[in-house]
Amino acid sequence: MLSHLAANMEETVSMILFGIGFTTLLLHKNLIKKIIGMNIMDTAVYLFLAAKGYIHGRMVPILTDGITDASAYTNPIPDGLVLTGIVVSVSVTALMLSLTIRLYRRYGSLDLDEIVMEWRKEER
Amino acid sequence: MDFIRNFPFFSIILAMFCGILSSVLKGKQARNLCLFMVTTVMLLSGAVLWYTTKAGSFIYMMGHFPAPWGNEIRAGVLEALTAVFFAVILFLSLLGGMKHIFFDVEETKTNLFFILVDLLMSSLLALIYTNDLFTAYVFVEINTIAACGLIMIKQDGHGIVAAIRYMVMSLLGSGMFLISLSMLYDITGQLLMEPAGEAVASLVSSGQYRVPLLVVIALMSVGLAIKSGLYPFHSWIPETYGYATPAASAILSSLVSKGYIFLLIKIFYRVLGYQAMVQTGITNVLFGFGLIGMIMGSVKAIQETDTRKMIAYSSVAQIGYIYMGIGLGTRAGMVAAVFHIFTHAATKSLLFISAVGLYEVSGGKSDYLSLRGSGYRNRTAGLAFAVGSLSMVGFPMLAGFISKLLFATAAVQSPAKMFFTILGLALSTTLNAIYFLRLVISIYSPAEREYGEEVSFLASRKLKAASFLFIVVNLVLGLFSQPIVDAIGVGLNQFI
């Protein structure tokens, strides 16, 4: 069991990071920490994809020294997925941060529980 | 006629470009462009529906790379039918809530609202039509961002708190979807639905990667269930639907969550294999949560006094119905679930739009005691609300009756779950009747105070027209259900 974990170290680490990010996003009260958690969660997925796309002894898929044999290069699709994922994650982070700024200006707090309590008071 | 094969792509790209173009237009122009776009999408999808019923489903290659490498769009009867239906509901919701959009949104920002609606339509169409898993993920995120924008466009504290709570839950869901996608890509090496489906089928038959596959199935189902608001993950629904501008509430409750459910059904059939799903037991889990959601959503709705939040909690119950249908694990159950997607979309948007008409004439208050007599003050909205409520309760001739009938028939075919399904249906229907009929009785009982001219008739002709058309859609679903049910069956057959 432990030897499996050691052999797949990158994947193991990425799953642990995913768990950390997921719980932070779910359970933390502070909005900035929630956003950091979200970024950790997404980065864990990129690590997973990058680790899976890497094959030891092969080169990045850019034609070098005239070698055209496909077995000399790695598959570019996982890298492409990582790039797309980063774009998505950046835009979502920007949106979340802008929402956080709006909330801080209005309620003067970053604590989501406090904000929700204030908000319920306003409702009455 | 093969030119029609381009239409799914045209409708996605048209919606997206209208969104981009709207950024330089004024509010009214953006509105006209948006309505034009939705109408065009309706017609294009109608043509696709006609084509697919005649010629069967087809796969449209994006770019010039063939199957395992390129990106693909797939259209069949069910996809086209869903696209037509979503376009109709979006059009009517916009029409009914139009006056409030211009009232709730700052004048300089009205075009932003329509940009978001355009993007939402584009991402919904992409979720319906795409044949590629990673494309589905990207459009899931676009859909989430557009929906978040629609929630917060009403620039007050409520909107922003609701939006951030929606975003947090939604991002948890998309994170789970993304990691499951990466794992699936890892064990199959494919992102297109068909090759991935074949690879999964061979893995299942050889017994390899049993645990990773189970993890993928669980994460994917739970991720999309969170995003569509299945019962224990419903905490964002009441605030979100309760405070957004009415058109946004109608769109969010009837379309956005349904887009994710549609994607989940598509993945179940085309990638993971429905029989394999049933064997893993994930359908039993969805069945259980759906059943609890049906009851708990209704119980919460009874406790709620605010009309819009009540309708929102009722959405929780209806999402439960859909997952219960999926969880039955039979074809009949799935047909019932898909039909209920349509029923709920038609009925819930009708309720949100007509509820606006009711509290416009009640001094803007939305708790059900203030709504007394509003059915007399705004007759169209009263009638529409009554029809919507009766449809939710399952009154014959209306859409809700047919879906309840389909659920019950499907339950009889799966003996193991028959008792719980029938019991759940009976309980949930009774609870539905309690809170919806309470409201209907309340809006038709005499008001405690006189309302003067100031609130006499604010409702516009657009709201009237939208309410009537919604009633017609409900009656069509209720009275002419057989062709639609047949089309759903044909569409599900084409999935395999």
Automatic annotation (TrEMBL), chain A:
<comment type="similarity">
    <text>Belongs to the CPA3 antiporters (TC 2.A.63) subunit C family.</text>
</comment>
<keyword id="KW-1133">Transmembrane helix</keyword>
<keyword id="KW-1003">Cell membrane</keyword>
<feature type="transmembrane region" description="Helical">
    <location>
        <begin position="81"/>
        <end position="101"/>
    </location>
</feature>
<dbReference type="GO" id="GO:0005886">
    <property type="term" value="C:plasma membrane"/>
</dbReference>
<dbReference type="InterPro" id="IPR039428">
    <property type="entry name" value="NUOK/Mnh_C1-like"/>
</dbReference>
<keyword id="KW-0472">Membrane</keyword>
<feature type="transmembrane region" description="Helical">
    <location>
        <begin position="12"/>
        <end position="28"/>
    </location>
</feature>
<keyword id="KW-0812">Transmembrane</keyword>
<dbReference type="InterPro" id="IPR050601">
    <property type="entry name" value="CPA3_antiporter_subunitC"/>
</dbReference>
<dbReference type="Pfam" id="PF00420">
    <property type="entry name" value="Oxidored_q2"/>
</dbReference>
<protein>
    <submittedName>
        <fullName>Cation:proton antiporter subunit C</fullName>
    </submittedName>
</protein>
From TrEMBL, chain B:
<feature type="transmembrane region" description="Helical">
    <location>
        <begin position="465"/>
        <end position="485"/>
    </location>
</feature>
<feature type="transmembrane region" description="Helical">
    <location>
        <begin position="73"/>
        <end position="98"/>
    </location>
</feature>
<feature type="transmembrane region" description="Helical">
    <location>
        <begin position="165"/>
        <end position="187"/>
    </location>
</feature>
<keyword id="KW-1133">Transmembrane helix</keyword>
<keyword id="KW-0812">Transmembrane</keyword>
<dbReference type="InterPro" id="IPR001750">
    <property type="entry name" value="ND/Mrp_TM"/>
</dbReference>
<dbReference type="GO" id="GO:0005886">
    <property type="term" value="C:plasma membrane"/>
</dbReference>
<feature type="transmembrane region" description="Helical">
    <location>
        <begin position="281"/>
        <end position="299"/>
    </location>
</feature>
<feature type="transmembrane region" description="Helical">
    <location>
        <begin position="207"/>
        <end position="226"/>
    </location>
</feature>
<keyword id="KW-0472">Membrane</keyword>
<dbReference type="InterPro" id="IPR050586">
    <property type="entry name" value="CPA3_Na-H_Antiporter_D"/>
</dbReference>
<feature type="transmembrane region" description="Helical">
    <location>
        <begin position="134"/>
        <end position="153"/>
    </location>
</feature>
<dbReference type="Pfam" id="PF00361">
    <property type="entry name" value="Proton_antipo_M"/>
</dbReference>
<feature type="transmembrane region" description="Helical">
    <location>
        <begin position="32"/>
        <end position="53"/>
    </location>
</feature>
<protein>
    <submittedName>
        <fullName>Proton-conducting transporter membrane subunit</fullName>
    </submittedName>
</protein>
<feature type="transmembrane region" description="Helical">
    <location>
        <begin position="422"/>
        <end position="444"/>
    </location>
</feature>
<feature type="domain" description="NADH:quinone oxidoreductase/Mrp antiporter transmembrane">
    <location>
        <begin position="131"/>
        <end position="422"/>
    </location>
</feature>
<feature type="transmembrane region" description="Helical">
    <location>
        <begin position="6"/>
        <end position="25"/>
    </location>
</feature>
<feature type="transmembrane region" description="Helical">
    <location>
        <begin position="247"/>
        <end position="269"/>
    </location>
</feature>
<feature type="transmembrane region" description="Helical">
    <location>
        <begin position="110"/>
        <end position="128"/>
    </location>
</feature>
<keyword id="KW-1003">Cell membrane</keyword>
<comment type="similarity">
    <text>Belongs to the CPA3 antiporters (TC 2.A.63) subunit D family.</text>
</comment>
